[in-house]
Amino acid sequence: MEIIKHWIGGSPAGSASATAPVFDPATGRIRARVVLGTAADVDAAVTRAAAAFETWSESSLTQRTQVMFAFRQLLVEHEEELARIISAEHGKTVDDARGEIVRGREVVEFACGLGDALKGSHSDQVSRGVDVHDFRRPLGVVAGITPFNFPAMVPLWMHPIAIATGNTFVLKPSERDPSAAGFVAGLYRRAGLPDGVFNVVHGGKEAVDAILAHPGIEAVSFVGSTPVAQYVHGAATSAGKRVQALGGAKNHAVVLPDADPEFAAGHITAGAYGSAGERCMAVSVAVAVGSAANGLVEALARRAREVKVGPGHVPGVEMGPLITEDARDRVERAVGTAAGQGATVVVDGRGLKPDGHPECADGFFTGPSLLDHVTPEMDAYRQELFGPVLAVVRVDTLDEAIDLINANPYGNGTALFTGSGEAARRFQRRVQVGMIGVNVPVPVPMSYYSFGGWKDSLIGDSPVHGPEGVRFYTRPKVVTTRWPRPARQDAAGFAFPTSA
Ligand code: NAD
Predict the structure, then answer these.
(1) For a substitution probing ligand 1, which of 149, 211, 459 has the most ligand atoms within 8 Å of its CB?
(2) Looking at its record, which EC class is this enzyme (predicted)?
(3) How far apart are CA 360 and CA 426, in angstroms?
(4) Does the predicted TM-score (pTM) go above 0.90?
(5) Does residue 384 line the site of ligand 1, with CB under 6 A?
(6) How confident is the model over 266-298, as pLDDT tens digits?
(7) Number of neighbours of residue 418 by Cβ within 10 angstroms
(8) Mean pLDDT, to the nearest integer, of 176-183?
(9) What is the distance in A from the centroid of ligand 1 to the CA of 243?
(10) Which residues have C-beta within 8 Å of that of residue 57, sequence separation ≥ 6?
């Protein structure tokens, strides 16, 4: 059985004393075991990262961006291999895994151009003979704690910017699909990144707690569920660290009567059931406004029944299994609870086994489910199910739809399907959500913008990547300079300095 080890100081590390199983969710079989990091493992990684920071933080911007260019090229060349590693442990289709690599690579591309983002400003002659300029310095050793659902992309939201700005990094990936992290570590090494700049410590709560408490870690980036985001934010800020903590979601797609129902239904279906609904930007609620409802539900039901479910490595499959047996059982229970609370189960995905794949009999599959007449009091509306369940809520007006979304505790993503510019403008100005799509169901921003929700979807105040990422991983220095001519020495005054 393969043992997946940490990556510390440029090589695999860690003893196999405590391990956790890593499953192939399509078959339900254990495919490897991952070592569970301890406080000693975290300390070893931080010690190597701190030593590497001494030289890496003094490297030139050109050297750092050249490493990023080489790393980007290796991500292109190894996309297929990495996609298959992700698919085998996560269960998503290989095509979908390629998509997350491409979106993560875009952050590397942003990091290749950091010379521009790191330019400071200069003010000439703010006082006689005095200039002011500013520049930004890296923080030191920073850590990333990431979820299972994007084992390549979410860490890539963090480490390229942290490293290109001169920090060194300790990644604690999800213990459920840990192999992508080690593969990426190998690519960095081949790209010329010095040993110790990028490190991986596997594990669960014990490793996370050691990161949150370690005095050598300056900042923590977290992405995962809201309760853990709140915990991480609280513990790390009280330990004096900078924290960005992204949480869970319940994303609404609103369909107005003037929208093309087939276009909306096609995109909402893909947004709801792609990656088996295990995306923080998955569409989990369709809000049908007025007369849009019946046609929309009919089109959604037809499409939900057509989704091709199977193992992620098989060409043509559109949706794979869930990550664990527990996740599958939780999602199937939620469909039953919704029916008991008065929702109409239009399409029931429970108990699905992929056709023609006897090897998947014990896999963690459930099919797409579509619930109609869901109300905000029902569990299926209130909870983040993180599975292939789409709930339809019917309302009378756009303003009612906006009020519904604003009353929801989450505020990650949302979308509006309409042909009206006025409605789109009203929606985007009033809705209390961080990322908004207009006729775009999954509005994940490009890497040169920042990614982050509002309310319980982002704890604290810092979104990730783009300009906010650069700000998060650096701190400014402002320098006030005077170079007096030897002949003209101004007298030093004791009053608080003002410009004149
Ligand atoms: P999770 O919160 O269970 O785990 C995230 C990380 O925290 C993992 O590395 C895990 O090992 C660690 N962890 C788990 N429980 C912990 C605990 N009690 N104490 C300390 N550390 C702990 O999340 P998940 O199930 O891996 O991922 C799914 C969740 O992530 C969903 O809620 C989803 O919405 C969210 N997510 C959010 C975004 C976003 O951008 N807002 C992106 C991706 C995923």
Answers:
(1) 149
(2) oxidoreductase
(3) 47
(4) yes
(5) yes
(6) 999 999 999 999 999 999 999 999 999 999 999
(7) 23
(8) 98
(9) 15
(10) 137, 138, 140, 166, 167
CB of 149 closer than 8 Å to CB of 484: no
Buried b (16+ CB within 10 A) or exposed e, 423-435: bbeebeeebebbb
Q: With a cut of 0.85, is the ipTM above it?
A: yes
Report the nearest-CA residue for atom 11 of ligand 1. Answer: 204
Round to whole Å and give the CA distance between 247 and 232.
11
Ligand 1: which of 148, 150, 225, 364 to mutate, most ligand atoms within 8 Å of CB?
225
How far does the centroid of ligand 1 lie from the alpha carbon of residue 147, in Å?
A: 4
Q: Residue 348 has which token pair?
A: 């029931």
DSSP 284-332: EEEEEEGGGHHHHHHHHHHHHHH--BS-TTSTT--B---SSHHHHHHHH
Distance CA 496, CA 100 (A): 54
Strand partners of residue 246: 223, 458
Decide whether any atom of ligand 1 lies within 6 Å of the 154 Cβ. Answer: yes
Measure 448 CA to ligand 1 centroid, in angstroms: 24
**Tokens 């007096």 — which residue?**
484
CA of 249 to the centre of ligand 1 (A): 12
When the pLDDT of each residue in the chain is averaged and rounded to a whole number, the result is 97
Distance 224 CA to ligand 1 centre (A): 3
174 in contact with ligand 1, CB cutoff 6 A: yes
Q: Hey, whose CA ends up nearest to atom 26 of ligand 1?
A: 147
Distance between CA atoms of 306 and 271, rounded to whole angstroms?
15
Question: What does the alpha-carbon distance between residue 419 and residue 257 come to, in Å, rounded to a whole number?
Answer: 9
Tell me how many degrees the CA angle 266-267-268 measures, rounded to the nearest 5.
95
- Which residues are marked as active site? 280
How far, in Å, are 117, 333, 393, 423, 466 from residue 338 at the CA level? Answer: 48, 9, 13, 31, 39
At 60-111, the pLDDT tens digits run 999 999 999 999 999 999 999 999 999 999 999 999 999 999 999 999 999 9
Query: Taking a C-beta distance cutoff of 8 angstroms, is the pair 166, 64 a contact?
Result: yes
Is residue 178 lining ligand 1, measured as CB closer than 6 Å? no
On the 0-12 / 13-18 / 19+ scale of CB atoms within 10 A, 461 is: exposed
